[in-house]
């Protein structure tokens, strides 16, 4: 897999250049989260430590399969199921892993209560998700945590790495936001694509244009100020740990944190 942290900006991919699209997605995401690879490493460390080197993993809200790619490279004996609703991102994921029998992908809406019925396996050793569930409101996320608990085997794990700001540190939070804005402005001036610009490129692509149109019909066009994939409400790590325990997990705690984000691990 190309396009990991620290790589230079790649040329704009065209058509079925799945590795190119993966690199492009990674760079766009790194513009928002320069510590993205750190959270992935913490997640995979937890998986290997708690469920071993050959886990069956559910990549929740998988997007292009970023977690699956890193999982399978680190743990070749693993198996992964990616689930998402986005037609364009799933097209990239399926294209990328077309020749890899260890990875499979399912279309499902996590906001609907029957999404688990679409999964090919009843239970998983681990469920992993990163920067994907913040668009749910707290009551929806609490309900989802209960559903996730139902597909994690006893002794298995769930890790959610996402935006989890600490409201008790407003001064630190503001300083980090200001610093991050300066960094983003600098990188954008150097040609890095933000969310809306990346989707504009995808929509113009001869292969991905159709799936992108389907995606916009579901979530709205990121370049339309009156549309878009609206965020829910974010909560601090302690809320996630407490909610996961209430959902049926035996233990839950933070295993990684930056100034803005955190990864919370729950043991079933």
TrEMBL record:
Say which domain of life the source belongs to.
Bacteria
Q: Which UniProt keywords apply?
A: Methyltransferase, Transferase
One GO term under biological process is: methylation
Protein known as? Class I SAM-dependent methyltransferase
Q: Which InterPro entries match?
A: Methyltransf_25, SAM-dependent_MTases_sf
The record's annotation in CDD domains points to: AdoMet_MTases (cd02440)
**A Pfam family assignment:** Methyltransf_25
Q: Name one GO molecular function term.
A: methyltransferase activity
According to the entry, every stretch annotated as the Methyltransferase domain falls at 57-156
Classification from the root reads: Bacteria, Bacillati, Actinomycetota, Actinomycetes, Kitasatosporales
Gene3D superfamilies attached to this UniProt entry: Vaccinia Virus protein VP39
Stretches that traverse the bilayer: none
């Amino acid at each position: 897999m190309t396009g990991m942290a620290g790589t230079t900006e790649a040329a704009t991919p065209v058509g079925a250049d799945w590795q190119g699209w993966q690199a492009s997605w990674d760079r766009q995401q790194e513009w928002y989260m320069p510590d993205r690879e750190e959270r992935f490493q913490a997640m995979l460390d937890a998986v290997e430590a708690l469920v071993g080197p050959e886990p069956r993993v559910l990549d929740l809200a998988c997007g292009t399969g970023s977690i699956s790619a890193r999982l399978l490279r680190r743990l070749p004996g693993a198996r992964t199921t990616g689930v998402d609703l986005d037609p364009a991102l799933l097209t990239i994921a399926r294209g990328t892993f077309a020749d890899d029998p260890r990875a499979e992908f399912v279309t499902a809406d996590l906001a609907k209560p029957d999404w688990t019925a679409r999964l090919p396996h009843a239970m998983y050793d681990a469920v992993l998700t990163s920067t994907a569930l913040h668009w749910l409101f707290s009551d929806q996320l609490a309900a989802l945590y209960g559903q996730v608990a139902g597909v994690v085997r006893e002794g298995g794990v769930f890790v959610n790495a996402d935006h989890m700001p600490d409201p008790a540190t407003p001064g630190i939070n503001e300083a980090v936001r200001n610093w991050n804005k300066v960094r983003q402005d600098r990188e954008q001036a150097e040609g890095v694509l933000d969310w809306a610009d990346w989707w504009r490129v995808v929509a113009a692509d001869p292969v991905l244009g159709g799936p992108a149109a389907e995606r916009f019909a579901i979530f709205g066009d990121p370049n339309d100020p009156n549309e878009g994939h609206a965020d829910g409400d974010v909560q601090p790590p302690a809320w996630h740990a407490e909610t996961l325990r209430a959902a049926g997990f035996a233990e839950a705690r933070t295993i990684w944190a930056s100034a803005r984000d955190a990864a919370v691990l729950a043991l079933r």
